[in-house]
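Worked example 3. Consider a protein that binds zinc ion.
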Amino acid sequence: MTDLPLLTWGLVLAALVLGILAGHFGWGKRWTGHLSKLHPDYLTGLDYLVSEQPDRALDMFLKLMDANAETIETHFALGSLYRRRGEVERAIRIHQNILARKELAPEHREQALLALAQDYLRAGVLDRAEGLFQQVSEVPRLRASALDALRGVYERQHDWQQALGAYRQLASIKAAPTRTVAAHYLCELAALAMERGDLDSARGLLNEARGEALPFPRAALLGAQIAERDLQPALAVKFLRQALTESPTLLQEELPRLLKLVGPEERDAILSELVSQAESRGFDELKRLVFAAIAANLGAAAPLRASIEKVFSQDGTLQAVWQEGPTQSERIAREIGALLAHAEKYRCNECGFSGRNFYWHCPACHSWDSFEAYAIVKLR
Ligand SMILES: [Zn+2]
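Given these inputs, the predicted complex is written out as structure tokens:
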């Protein structure tokens, strides 16, 4: 939520009121000279602002608006400010008031409908927001923003088919976001098909997802789940290795699942390959692999020993602990493993939301692909 300090908010409102006054009298006129002739409501509204009584001030401004048809843009700005502050009911009152005007130009009516839809979205009244956005999407000038907002409404409702429909309409007017978003919708639909036991449809949807975005690790992960359901462990292993190559972020979640599917020899071969992959990508990736492996109780696995020592001896945070002596490494690995098991493991890069679960779609800010594995390790 935008949280303007109270003083700033008061100043912004005062500026808007001055805008209303200026609109009323015209910038070219010496409107200050008219202050003495003002309707008392103008000054009362300002008094309410100064004494921090926003509801009373709002009543005054709504009255002013009724009396003064030229200041409509100022009221759109006021409504938008109220919404951004989370004062949605006030924003709704302003926009409904605009819509109730008798002689309202069509473009102002459309703009007010869009603003009201955004108010309802912000308030979480999704069905009303949806109806209004649909109405506004018929207006060519506002079509792209209304369809994009509708896409957001369908995402919040987990109506992936409709979200995909809105995405396709946006694509037809060249206003769609990145194609990975469509690929995620198709993966959501594939996951639903899997829940219904309809694996053929799920496979078809995953193929469509790969058609939208490649590489697309989420499709490989779901492919692995289908292969497991089909009792094809070798295929599941292939898909999981592909997913981990495409997105090392998934290591923490998927490494244990992958290793459950293979015997000890193949396990060591896979770990050695992951080590060389991580090394070729840089120290941070090696650290990520080491932490994921420790969290999966693989701290003592032979292919990882050298990597664990390297990470512990070179990482700034862990170095102090490492100086206790390399013989401590197994104990330290165990302690880190225990900490990781209880730590908040993932964080959204966009909004900072964090928790123990991984999400493709951030539950807080609704971004896609924004989750990153991280660990808060406190050793002392
Ligand atoms: Zn987020």
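Take a moment to read the result before moving on. Residues 24-36 have pLDDT under 50 and may be disordered. The two ends are 36 Å apart (CA to CA).
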